[in-house]
Amino acid sequence: MQTTKQDASWRAPSPFADSFFLTGATASGKTALGVAIARELGAEIVSLDSMAVYRKMDVGTAKPTLEERGGVPHHMLDVVDASEQFSVVEYMRQAAEAVRGIRERGAIALFVGGTPLYLKTMLFGVFDAPASDPRLREELRAIAEKEGPYALWSILREEDPESALRLHQNDVKRVVRAIEVVRLTGKPMSAQLKEFSAPPLFEPGRIFILTRERDELYDRINRRVDEMMRAGFLEETRRLFESDPPPGPTASKAVGYRELKDVLDGRLALEEAVETIKRLTRNFAKRQETWFRSLTAQGARRIDAAGKSADALREEICGEIRKYLE
To answer: Which architecture characterizes domain 134-193 according to CATH?
Structure first.
């Protein structure tokens, strides 16, 4: 991920400092709760979901329908076509514009979503990485193509062991970038990231993490995938990949779409694809929870949904937000 001084202009002072955040693992119930909170407090919602920015990816991203939005203004939904690339820095720039508009209208900005990278960047910023080097990038990609992804990953393991531990050997795009950074700067990306070494750009207590017991969360995930299939997830995938231009590399790798594309291409049975989607989504939720635990150590508030009604959860969070507004 690269920035320039112009790209990073949203960072100082942080335009998100007086915003509030409702996050949590996928299928934890953030969307409905966020709408209820926004309606009570007169807030506007800014989506914190890296896949909801893409148009025509509605069912598979669990994007809230107009009815589910309950009349609450939503921002950062349907921002770009699925064929386009959309960087975290571009998200920050557009989200900052949305927040400025919300503030001018005298409303509260409530971010709702579960993309850790977006929240992490808002909270701690991004390092000023070098611009890409096309020739070096092509050389590295050629290694992966000729010798396999493991050969490329082995180079990263020698030059930046910490990043190698963090990245899967088949994640060629990010492995290439990590090697590129260390060769262009002489310093490993892992040493530059330092995600929690700098003080947060705003008060972590403004972040509310909705949590559920693992068995309950996994059951909710399984049921939501089934609901997506009934809502036309397969047909949405068909239309997406038959579009011209087709979805780009980021959108096409979203969990669910790639598995259903295999179904459409005859490489995978539908039943197997559905079970794979459920498993991958549960794995994603587990990774989210791991990061949210580290965020709690920074001062974010965990909101345990166990045994609480939707009204009770709404009142609990609204009560905490009102303390900031008094």
So the answer is: Orthogonal Bundle (1.10)
